[in-house]
Automatic annotation (TrEMBL), chains A, B:
Pathway: Amino-acid biosynthesis; L-histidine biosynthesis; L-histidine from 5-phospho-alpha-D-ribose 1-diphosphate: step 9/9. It comes from Hwanghaeella grinnelliae. The active site is at residues 327-328. This is Histidinol dehydrogenase. It catalyses: L-histidinol + 2 NAD(+) + H2O = L-histidine + 2 NADH + 3 H(+).
Length: 432, 432
């Protein structure tokens, strides 16, 4: 049974707080194991990477087997259902098109006293994309992680993907080929993250590592952060649906289940202003669950983490949504734009009755890598900026330095940094 | 003696690599102590914060003493030298003006099949600014950390600053007043970071924590990351100066020392195409050192981490600069713009002979919080974007959903996520 909360009931504030702070993630203690693997990869390079790969993926590779040749990638990709590949192509085109609008603008100007100032964006040199193996190998994730890098202008895009028991996922290869990955290595886990971060004899170090992974991968990314950049460490997926009574309860039930089926730790929340509608959705969830292949996962998620929150009016949903700061927010209401305008914290907002969240997972255009666990309060979905960095530019001439130099000297001296002050003085021919 | 490298000499590649990978940071093992403090603050709130503050700062506060009243801030600020306050005002105006140009643009459009798509930037709700106490309390850092938040539109800006032995730094108060900090708490260390991240009875939780601090503060920020956003964890400061023989060796020497005086772990590097000039700068550094109050610090930094690299021509400096990815890059050459155009990795570039790095520390306009330790390969200086987050928007109607829904269903089914597929199907009146 999902949690039931009524914003009009006494004690709601306390219950909502408890709900907000309930943990969904299982913390696996893998950090020590990961530290040892990373150290080993750093010291022994390829040799260590191959040993761990052979052990964890039950294969018997040599160093030469790690890089997947382009021909092999093409061969695997050719095994895919053409209709699915066509769908991938539609998705790739739409995702690229949306992300192109996110390219930031560099600027340069000369201010009123003659100081030239600028801000220049440039792409990171090389990006590494982690793709999980086995059942969690999602071709849509390849598109969502690789395309922003491509749009940003990253010159070298490297993919690592484990192939447990030697099995290659053809759709992942099709996606890699489609987006133009430059190198694909059939390795995974902490050893793959280490290889990308430190470099080995055969794999050149990258500057940034992105992509989802299990607890080992997440711990490895945390540890190599600083040596390379990383994307966020994603928690379990979430959806919050705000729906009025005019919706078909069945539609909303399926939307809630589309998150719940990801993972038993996933979370689906319904906020509605109609108690009867809430009951109807709950009943529909029970019926729909029976039809799902991933019924057990979805049922566990709904029972353990699901919630139905009744509010006196839809406007009362706004502060609750901001506090949850959901990864995905569906506004299945008559005037979704007005409601969306009042909300600050959400990774992505799906507007209206004909925009199920799943359309954003695959094909709408915006990224599906989004902030989880309330982090939409301070962070954003993956985008082009994650593969770029900014350099500031300053140019003074003798006259403009003379104009502002005195203030800088005053501050440097107030902070007790004499060489700072002298580096300006000396150019102004003052006491040096 | 600084390290001497000659890019034309055999073995340079190996020596440069060793130089790049030499560690400058002392890693203090404070993580366990910090974990205990954070846990305590989380559980006991104000009571714990006050206890740690009294112990570490040698004061005897009660909970009521922590918040500095506006009147007290004004009183302290009034003690400052008016000339220094005027310099702070000049700096604040220039920093705000530069940062206003960094405000990102939201967008919304309807694509060719009728899907409405958007990207909306908004400010984080509340930001916490850590300001170190004692000698490291730099008013310039208050401006550089607070103004991007203000420009971003952050509604609530909270400052924490320890006051060891009860001593308040008037210039820090003047800076806080100038930028319009909303709340100032006289607490520091891991306990202050914990209070901002988790909230206490008297301090409301923030969404993002920025600002420099010692090893305890850095460890605490790493640990609370996820609960709140944090800025980068800054390493020791660096400057790389590319200079030709037309410079006054004395000017370049002082520039190198202006980083070296920060910290014994700071690093100053000169790259030049003239061996005689290199020698002249080295000699000037020795002479200039004698004149500095912070001579011992600067001398240790230069001897342990300094480097002079000789290149056959200035163009040979480009790949070396990109590999160092310096926090500060000074191009004291005849045509700095052309050289800057070839460089990808640098936090900030100072162009020409009249732009000493120190002008950027205080007054030029760009931020002085910049990526260190080679992280300019993948990250940027502090800016307005650090206090904003992006929400993506998608709106389909029945017709546009019908247009792209089929591809999404194909991908959802290929990934084995049936509820995802059904959430689209059901709206298309297909098999549901």
């Amino acid at each position: 049974m999902p949690r039931k909360l009524d914003a009009g009931a006494p004690g709601f504030e306390k219950d909502f707080d408890t709900f907000l702070n309930s943990k969904r993630e299982m913390e696996e203690d893998v950090d020590q194991a990961v530290a040892a693997i990373l150290k080993d990869v750093r010291e022994r390079g390829d040799e260590a990477v191959v040993e761990y790969t052979n052990r964890f993926d039950r294969v018997s590779f040599t160093t030469d087997d790690i890089l997947l040749p382009k021909a092999r990638i093409a061969e695997e990709a050719a095994k895919c259902d053409p209709a699915t590949v066509a769908a991938l192509q539609v998705a790739a085109k739409r995702i690229a098109s949306y992300h192109e609008r996110m390219l930031p603008e560099s600027f340069e100007y000369t201010d009123e006293i003659g100081v030239r100032l600028g801000s220049r964006w440039s792409a990171v040199g090389a990006a590494g994309l982690y793709v999980p193996g086995g059942t969690a190998a999602y071709p849509s994730s390849v598109l969502m992680n690789a395309l922003p890098a491509k749009v940003a202008g990253v010159k070298r895009l490297v993919m690592v993907v484990p192939t447990p028991d030697g099995v290659i996922n053809p759709l992942v290869m099709a996606a890699a080929q489609l987006v133009g990955v430059d190198e694909v290595y059939r390795i995974g886990g902490a050893q793959a993250v280490g290889a990308l971060a430190y470099g080995t004899q055969s794999i050149t170090q990258v500057d940034k590592i992105v992509g989802p992974g299990n607890a080992f991968v997440a711990a490895a990314k945390r540890r190599v952060f600083g040596t390379v950049g990383i994307d966020m460490i994603a928690g379990p997926s979430e959806i919050l649906v705000v729906a009025d009574a005019e919706n078909d309860p069945d539609w909303i039930a399926v939307d809630l289940l589309s998150q719940a089926e990801h993972d038993t730790s996933a979370q689906s929340i319904l906020i509605t202003d109609d108690a009867g509608f809430a009951d109807a959705v709950e009943a529909a969830v029970i019926r729909r669950l029976e039809t799902l292949p991933r019924k057990d996962i979805a049922a566990a998620s709904w029972a353990q983490h699901g919630a139905v929150i009744l509010v006196p009016s839809l406007d009362h949903a706004v502060p609750l949504v901001d506090r949850v700061a959901p990864e995905h927010l569906e506004l299945a209401v008559a005037d979704p734009d007005t409601l969306a305008g009042k909300i600050s914290n959400a990774g992505a907002i799906f507007l209206g009755r004909y925009t199920p969240e799943a359309i954003g997972d695959y094909i709408a255009g915006p990224n599906h890598v989004l902030p989880t666990s309330r982090s939409a309060r301070f962070s954003s979905g993956l985008g082009v900026l994650d593969f770029m960095k900014r350099t500031s530019l300053v140019a003074c001439d003798a006259a403009s330095l003379a104009e502002i130099g005195g203030s800088a000297v005053a501050l440097a001296e107030a902070e007790g940094l004499q060489a700072h002050a002298r580096s300006i003085d000396i150019r102004l021919n003052r006491a040096s």
